[in-house]
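Students often ask why inverse folding is considered easier than folding. One informal answer: many sequences map to the same fold, so there is more than one right answer. In these notes we will look at a single instance of the problem. The structure comes first.
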């Protein structure tokens, strides 16, 4: 489109990898009965995912929408600030869900994997809160400075998007992956993530 602010576009492009969550679950489920305790653990984690995935997806969509032609810097700032806050809240909620679920039963190094996932998700939450502070501090009255600031945020956002997709992957392996892939709530998130990937 003519006249599009390229920096805003860059910020939107940085989000293309940011759709969260259980991309690792796109594999098939095993045909066995599994571990009932592990299935119950997986349900607890999976049931927390759809709402937070939707929140992150909506935040991504808002940032992309704000990157349209001739949107005033103040509007972009306000939208992006709220979006980063929502992302921070979503990852914090996921960290709490994994923490609350406890160690996945019958899994090698389950305690370490759970702790690592909680740490990764908490770090992401903190990082998005940091981006909110960055965007809040931008000077909307100076278009050039504002554009430079968005450029830096886009770079950081690109890195976060990648880590968002790996935050749960170490936890989602082997029996845990199979148990999670059986849960309807995880299937829903995986299918919506696949749909987003094909449309973006």
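Output (designed amino acids):
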């Amino acid at each position: 489109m003519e006249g599009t602010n390229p920096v805003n576009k860059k910020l939107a492009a940085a989000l293309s990898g940011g759709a969260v969550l259980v991309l690792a679950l796109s594999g098939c489920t095993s045909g066995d009965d599994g571990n009932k305790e592990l299935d119950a653990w997986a349900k607890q984690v999976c049931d927390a995912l759809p709402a937070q995935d939707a929140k992150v997806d909506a935040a991504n969509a808002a940032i992309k929408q704000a990157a349209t032609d001739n949107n005033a810097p103040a509007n972009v700032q306000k939208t992006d600030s709220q979006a980063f806050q929502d992302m921070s809240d979503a990852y914090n909620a996921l960290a709490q869900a994994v923490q609350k679920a406890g160690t996945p039963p019958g899994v090698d190094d389950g305690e370490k994997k759970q702790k690592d996932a909680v740490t990764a998700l908490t770090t992401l939450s903190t990082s998005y809160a940091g981006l909110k502070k960055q965007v809040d501090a931008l000077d909307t009255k100076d278009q050039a400075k504002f554009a430079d600031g968005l450029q830096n945020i886009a770079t950081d956002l690109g890195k976060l998007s990648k880590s968002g997709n790996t935050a749960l992957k170490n936890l989602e392996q082997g029996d845990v992956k199979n148990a999670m892939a059986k849960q309807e709530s995880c299937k829903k998130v995986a299918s919506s993530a696949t749909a987003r990937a094909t449309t973006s």
